[in-house]
Amino acid sequence: MKRLLLAVSVIIILIFAVGFFLPKEKTFIQTVNSPVPFDGISRVIVNKDLWKNWWPGTIINDSTVSFNEKKIVINTLLLNGFKATIIEDNRNTYFDLQSVTTYNAETAITLTTKVYLSANPFIKVFQYLSVGNTEKTAAALFEQLKITLSDIKKVYGFDIKMGKVPNSSYVSVKQDFDHYPDNTELYKMIDEVKAFIVSENSKVVNDPILNIVKENNKLYTAMVAVASDKDIPTKGKFMLKQMMLGNIVVAEVKGGPANIEKCRQAVQFYVNDFRKISPAIAFERMISNRLTTDSSQWLTTINYPVFQ
Q1: Strand order in the sheet with 70-78
Q2: What domain range includes position 37?
Q3: CB atoms inside a 10 Å sphere around CB 101
Q4: 216 & 292 share domain
């Protein structure tokens, strides 16, 4: 019995001694480069309404999220990241996510995890032994953040891609309105252009494109254009438009005017964030016939010609 008590006492003393010399905190750092520019990542971090697009867990409320069934409290939201606390196993763990611009429009993302241990040496030992679980949680979280914060669709809300301009020859018409033109008026313009192309012994080779500019409170200018299989010289109101067969930013959107406008803004953000230079204005390509299709089912692409 005395030997048993002595052995237990020695073990307790050893645990206490080990705990006394263990550090008060454990820190581990993970870093990766995302191909998304800093402005894009900063935008979705600052706007809590956009967290549902990229946070790899559950959004509980404005200040609390979860990951792998562990609650994480967002203490501070910054332009380049956030500071958060996760309470587990009677100890405080802090997450510090930071993002900074690097080169080639990339962003370095760093997640620093810091675990604070008890001042009690005995408790500290057992906490230290379970730090590995926290490290696994942080590693799993960071692995998911690497994926979501490198995903164009999750960051911008739409699947924005680089492509090539498919057609160079267009016939266009412009018309001014004292109101925002409706689909009947727009398709009347489109049908006129298509009829003109056919009358010139040419063929329509793609869906029509559209751009509407609000000149002032009382004037809107609508421009529609239809691609033809060859150049058709300008005649009257029908104007030849030649588009460079270069690069173009394209994003498809499903839905009516509100969704189209959101996609247009996302494409503009993309062009600005990636520092693209454009030789022309953005336009819609009307894939669905908006006269015969419910607006919730419209298919449209937002197209933005760029030099590179």
Answers
A1: 25-34, 107-116, 91-101, 81-88, 70-78, 64-67, 58-59
A2: 24-157
A3: 14
A4: yes
